[in-house]
Amino acid sequence: MSGQMTGSTFTASAIVPTTSASKYLQQLCKHWQHTMAVEFDADHGLVTFPRDARGADWPGDGTATFDASAEGLTVRIDATSDGQLEGLKGAVSRHLDRFAFREAPLAFDWR
Predict the structure, then answer these.
(1) For residue 1, what pLDDT is reported?
(2) Are strands 44-49 and 4-6 parallel, antiparallel or unpaired?
């Protein structure tokens, strides 16, 4: 398992070093708001990934929380299983690298 389990939640977080954290946060949230529940402003974002997204059958919804700062983009993923956590980590990192193509691949030190 690569994240921490708290109760029935599996959690992983990373601080991604970039000077464009707010830009990438907004691009990610705008991209996902077409198909998922998303709340965001320039410094904070929350994306809810439905438990049945892309044909999955996870125990519950997963979330990704984004916080922009001068040091980088802090990403926290909360999932209902280790498999869902790993899938969301991959989705977030792939999408972020796509939007940050000039800096990609970005460093994700998942904890």
Answers:
(1) 43
(2) unpaired
